[in-house]
Amino acid sequence: MPRTIEELTSGIADRHDVLDRLAAEAEAAGTATAELADELRTLGVPMVKAPLEVGGDHLHLADQLRYFEALAHANATAGWVGFNHAGAAGMCGATLGDDGLDLVFGSNPAPILAAVAAPSGRFERTDGGVRLSGTWHYASGIGHADWVMLTALETGATQPTVRAGLVSIADARTHGDWNVMALKGTGSINVTVDDVLVPDALVVDPIAGPLRGGPMYRLGYQAFVAGENLGFTLGVCQRFLDELALHAQRKARGFDGRLADRGAFQYEFGRGQLQIEAARGAALQLFGEADAVLRRGEALDGATQQHIVATLAHSTESAANAVSHLFHFAGASALFDSNVLQRLFRDAHGSVQHHVASNIAYDRFGQHLLTTTGESP
Fold first, then answer.
1. Cα–Cα–Cα angle for 334, 357, 307, rounded to 5 degrees
2. How many helices and strands (H and E) does the chain possess?
3. Backbone angles phi and psi of 343, in degrees to 5
4. What global pTM score does this model have?
5. Would you state the CATH architecture of domain 5-105?
6. Contact 28/338 with Cβ under 8 angstroms?
7. Could you tell me the residue ranges of all domains in the chain?
8. Measured between alpha carbons, how far is 89 from 110 in angstroms, rounded to an integer?
9. Residue 340 in contact with residue 22, Cβ under 8 Å?
10. What is the pLDDT of residue 157?
11. Could you tell me which CATH number the domain at 113-204 has?
12. 305-317 core/surface letters (b: 16 or more CB in 10 A; e: else)
């Protein structure tokens, strides 16, 4: 039986202290530690977006937001690599044939998959499968993955032909430094495969649509990941405000008194909390309306998907701006690596850099609005 969102978030709450302890360790290591990877498996994080038919929880958009907000609040690295693993397992569960499902899910109740959606590599057709080669960037969480799903273009094809191949981590080579200012624990390094044979059972056509799971798996990539991405941002930003409230209770600068007693801080703190709540509320309302359509077995039209992606971008920007505006109140002590505030500040802004949260979504949404409401005056 699939787990309810209440059961899933309760499981995170029960492990919150452990996840919190592992957050700084992942950042120092530049990747999720083995202990954190074990926590992800124990919580069943990879299966929360997988179809029911493969033993997944099939969370829809609003519940994805709630789930990954809770996970990122406890541990930002877990939230980021977790939504990558869940998204990859969800697409594999929906698109692989039965033989492929047996290979990936048959003996593993929570396989950990890394994935890169950008078609950075090349493939050639051969008997029984394709031969895959290339280097892909930003393979989040690959350091503890069982498989990696890689997207490629066909070599020499007259028409652009895309395929995604699932490669055992034993057949891939990871490399490169992950020297970044944010999301340090995600270990989103490069992955290379050299002329690896991927059998037909592990090759999917991402354009063809799902074999199981229903219309949620027919969403475009950006809409498909909107709930998980925004959940991450809101979890990190809310955790920042929660930690800042504790910091303000004990922070005093000279004879100026506690930060919590300053009227200017009280004003901005209240305003920042409302920004995050507004971002969450707007997204949950729109995502909930979209989920109602999906649960009826109907596909979402392009305009609704544009609205979802634009809401993702705006809510991400709004929540991160609240964090940015409040950080300077924290004082010099917040700059030290030992202070959780600096890590949350950086990770909040790292989420804004993800291409699915790009403000180009405003252009497209605005274009749609102008097209449907007539010429501007």
1. 135
2. 12, 7
3. -65, -45
4. 0.94
5. Orthogonal Bundle (1.10)
6. no
7. 5-105, 113-204, 219-373
8. 9
9. no
10. 83
11. 2.40.110.10
12. bbbbbbbbbbbbb
Per-residue pLDDT tens for 265-283? 999 999 999 999 999 999 9
Could you give the count of Cα atoms lying within 13 Å of 10 in the half-sphere of its Cβ? 5
First CA to last CA distance, the chain:
55
State the DSSP H helix or E strand holding residue 74, giving kind and residue range, or none if neither: helix 61-74
Residue 345 CA to residue 181 CA, distance in Å, equals 10
Distance CA 274, CA 204 (A): 43
Across 152-158, average pLDDT: 91
Which pLDDT band, with edges at 50, 70 and 90, does 375 fall under? low
Beta strands in the chain (DSSP E): 113-126, 129-136, 147-154, 162-168, 173-175, 190-199, 203-204
Sign of the alpha-carbon torsion through 237, 238, 239, 243: positive
| CATH class for the region spanning 219-373 | mainly alpha
Within 10 angstroms of residue 360's Cβ, the number of other Cβ atoms is 12
In this structure, what token pair is assigned to residue 335? 């700059």
